Amino acid sequence: MARKKSTKATLGTKSSSMFPQLHPFVSNAVSDKIPSPSFNNTDTDKGSQNKYSTFVMGKFQCYNNSCSNTGWGSKKVAVLIRGYGNNLYNAVVFGQRCQSCNRLGNLTLDEASYVDRVAYRLKKWAGVATEDQIYSKKEGPPHKSELCEGCKRGYCQRKKDGEYWFV
Question: What's the 3-state SS for 1-14?
Fold first, then answer.
C-alpha cells in the first residue's frame, strides 16, 4: 500500500536525486507479487536492463529572495526508473527551475505517487499481470521543457503531436 503524502522526501536545489529512504515502501507495495527488490544507489544507465520515464507529483519552492515566485506545484515531475539484474532498481527524480528566475526549485516529493509509479513499473518488468494505469488528462499549465531537468538530460516524457513519447 502506498504511503500518504509527506514532506520528508525532498530534493533540495539539485538537478536530480534518488530517494532510497522510500525503498521500504516500494518493496512493501510489490511484496505480494515479486521477490523483494533491492535499491541500487548508483545513478547510472550502465548495466540497466530496463528504463522507463514517467511523471510523479510534487511541490517546489523558490528560495531566491529577489524572486517574486515563492513556489509551484507540478503533476509532471520527471522520474526515470531503471531495472538491473538481480532484482535491483533505482529511480531518479529530476528537478524543475523557477519560471521567474530560472533557479532550481526545492522539491517536496509526493511520496504516494512515487511509490505507486515505481511499484507499478517493477511489477510490469517482472511480468506480473497488472491493470494498465489510466490517468485522466487534467488541465493545467503545460510542461515547460526548458525548465525541466529531466528534459535537459533526455529522460522525460514530452508531448509531441498530441501524444506522449519517451526520450
Answer: CCCCCCCCCEEECC
Cβ neighbors of 148 (< 8 A, separation 6 or more) are 76, 78, 94, 96, 97, 156
Query: C-alpha cell of 102?
Result: 530560472
- 6: pLDDT strictly greater than 70: no
> What span, in angstroms and rounded, lies between the C-alpha atoms of 46 and 90?
12
Cα separation, 4 vs 165, in Å, equals: 29
Cα angle for residues 103, 82, 91 (degrees, 5° grid) = 40
Residue type, 93: V
**Opening angle at CA 75, ends 22 and 82, nearest 5:** 45
Question: How far apart (Å, rounded) are the C-alpha atoms in residues 167 and 126?
Answer: 23
pLDDT digits (tens, 9 = 90+) for 104-114: 999 999 999 99
The 10s digit of each residue's pLDDT in 72-89 is 999 999 999 999 999 999
